[in-house]
């Protein structure tokens, strides 16, 4: 799955341009995460010719030396200047645990492992020399198998998980998805 994922992204000029733009910022422990990688796989598995538009491109990094939200805005602006058609969202994961009511995260991969549904817990970055680093704490198999389930590590409230899937209209975009709905209590 890893090699197939890398091949998929390498063949996507738009995604490669996004990765190159973020790599040029030299952020510590960064990834472009969530829908950037997940949607590419789901589009491929649905034989889509055109890319499903992303609401935003999630850039995550881990920098304990600079936790200022203003830095994130500056980084978003720098990326916007490079690729104006992309809606960037940049977040330093060193402080995101507070928003999510979790214990502090150790690094970016640890933060990604705490997101709501398992197929969203994925990220990729472009390393020096053109190599790719991929983080997928629950593997890539569920993405390629079109399965969606709640994150077993954080167990979000059922309503939060179910509403995210409905609000994002995933089944409209990717009707072959197999959704494991959370039981409401």
Please characterize this protein's 3D structure.
With 185 residues, the protein is an alpha/beta fold. It has one domain (2-179). The chain is 39% helix and 14% strand. The chain is built from nine helices and seven strands, in the order H-H-E-H-E-H-E-H-H-E-E-H-E-H-H-E. It has helices at 2-10, 13-23, 35-45, 69-82, 96-100, 108-112, 141-144, 158-167, 170-173; strands spanning 31-33, 57-61, 88-92, 123-126, 132-135, 147-148, 178-179. The strands form two sheets. A five-stranded mixed beta sheet has the order 3-2-1-4-5. A two-stranded parallel ribbon has the order 6-7. The termini are far apart.
Q: Helix-strand pattern, N to C?
A: HHEHEHEHHEEHEHHE
User: Could you give a short account of the major beta sheet?
Assistant: 5 strands, mixed
Number of helices: 9
How many domains? The number is: 1
Radius of gyration: 16 Å
Q: Estimate the mean pLDDT confidence.
A: 94
What is the 3D shape?
Answer: globular
Strand order of the largest sheet: 3-2-1-4-5
| Binned strand content | 5-15%
Query: What's the count of strands?
Result: 7
Give the topology.
Elements: H1 2-10, H2 13-23, E1 31-33, H3 35-45, E2 57-61, H4 69-82, E3 88-92, H5 96-100, H6 108-112, E4 123-126, E5 132-135, H7 141-144, E6 147-148, H8 158-167, H9 170-173, E7 178-179
Keywords:
five-stranded mixed beta sheet, 14% strand, 7 strands, 185 residues
């Amino acid at each position: 799955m890893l090699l197939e994922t890398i091949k998929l992204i390498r063949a996507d000029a738009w995604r490669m341009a996004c990765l190159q733009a973020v790599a040029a910022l030299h952020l510590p422990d960064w990834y472009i995460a969530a829908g950037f990688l997940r949607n590419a796989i789901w589009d491929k598995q649905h034989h889509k010719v055109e890319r499903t538009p992303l609401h935003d491109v999630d850039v995550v990094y881990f920098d304990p030396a600079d936790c200022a939200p203003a830095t994130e805005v500056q980084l978003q602006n720098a990326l916007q200047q490079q690729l104006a058609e992309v809606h960037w969202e940049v977040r330093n994961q060193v402080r995101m645990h507070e928003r999510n009511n979790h214990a502090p995260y150790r690094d970016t991969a640890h933060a990604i492992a705490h997101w709501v549904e398992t197929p969203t817990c994925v990220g990729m970055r472009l390393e020096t020399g053109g190599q790719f680093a991929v983080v997928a704490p629950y593997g890539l198999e569920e993405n390629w198998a079109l399965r969606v389930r709640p994150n077993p590590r954080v167990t979000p409230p059922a309503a939060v998980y179910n509403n995210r899937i409905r609000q994002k209209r995933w089944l409209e975009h990717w009707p072959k998805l197999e959704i494991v709905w959370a039981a409401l209590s």
